[in-house]
Fold these 2 entries.
Entry 1:
Amino acid sequence: MTVITVAVSADSAGAAQSRFTSIANRDCTFAPIGNEPGDEEDQLKTCPGRGGVQVMVNALGTRLRIGCRWPKGHQPDKVIWAVEAWSAGFTVDWSGSGNGEPSAAIVRMKFQKKDLPVAGDQVLAVIRVAQDTACVMGAVDAGVTPKANETAHALAEAAASFVCGKDKPTIGGVKIKAAEEIVRGIAEQ
């Protein structure tokens, strides 16, 4: 009985190191935005984050963008859009100090495969997260980069020293067009 308890405790301690939140529809709330014809496709989804951050997901036609909002921040209604692609995965992988404050988030962004209704290239976007600040700090191609998750986590470890608007995002692993698109960021804010 003691051996089982020790094994479970070790597994529980390891699991506590990974902090994931969901951006799946069932775990979020929806609000339509815009009142013009055609705006019914423009949905804003609010999902739980870590350390007071809300993850915002906006599906706009054939594009999907992800950003952050701090309801208790300086501008509680302002969304800071960080990354955009055709679609995204269902989880956000948070990294940061043990106090629950995130310094980075990793989310899988998907690109449409040659005008087909399926995903092609998939990139792990590494987003710098700090109070009222979010931006892409790196990207890793998830399809051709060996150990892509480990590479993305290595980029996220540098989050505390990354300054949005000053430092240049990097591509970890194999450099592909989709990863380059991710590090270019979103033109409109």
Entry 2:
Amino acid sequence: MKSRYPQPVNSDTFEFRMRDDSPSRAIVESIVVSSEICGHPLSFAAAKMLAADLGDFDEAAVRAALARCRMEVHGLLKLTDILAHIDDGRPTAEEAWALMPQSEQTTVVWTDEMAQASGAAARYLDEGDMVAARAAFDEAYVKAVVAARIRRDPVRWTPSLGSDVRKRESVLHDAVRKGRLSAAHVQNLLPPVEIPPVAEEAISLLNIRSLH
């Protein structure tokens, strides 16, 4: 039997072919270029592995994340850097901090990661050190967000009710408009609407007339 040996490949005519479950070449090349711009070039094989790890995410979201990495990451481009910049409905660290309640009176609708990071900042807030509180919040929040994305956890918004009932309503309705809470959920969190005695009388008369 005649032995068959692998034939040499002409690199000039070689066509890159990927399996159906492989990441797109465009994303792999984008990672290669982005890593070079960040200051630490990656091999094509390493970039392909990163792209495969990001395969569950929308390609447009990965492209946008890489664009932000090119502006903000300096040095080796890591998977955690890309995950930290992916838009999956979670606010950025800056946006999350701006949403944080200023007192126990304030109602907030926040993500699990925001609630987790608030604990890291609590001690500094009690001491009145806003700079340290912000730094602790940002660090804890980014870590929590990256961990959630690695687990492929979808964003989850939950309300934390403050003692100011009047301001609570506007915050909850805003969350409904932004699709963060359902209207039915919010309805159960608000006090029942009080009907004035005059209106109750009018409703009673209408009900009586409808029976005749």
